[in-house]
Amino acid sequence: MGLPMNRHPATGVEIVFTTTDTMELAKKIAEKAVSMKLSACVQISGPLTSTYTWKGKVQSEQEYRMDFKIESANRADLYKLIKELHTYDLPEIMTIPVVDGSIEYLAWVKN
Question: What is the pTM of this model?
Fold first, then answer.
């Protein structure tokens, strides 16, 4: 069997993600979030291609995805930071609750 995992329905940890159009902006947002202790860790991946409809037109653009590992209590402040620093008119900001994980890692994210 695997390692012991946290089986509590609410871990208090979430993954927030957003995308940006440049690596430089992704790094800027990530570094600010970590330095302000709004996120324990931010992973940046990409470039990737996003295809979407904006103002009635289908578009495909290169983007960079950021995954923020956060304590749930920091969500509103992180959203505010992302919106303040982001260059998009409507940045994608979504959250996935973490329902399971290594007890030690979840504790690290919350400290």
Answer: 0.88
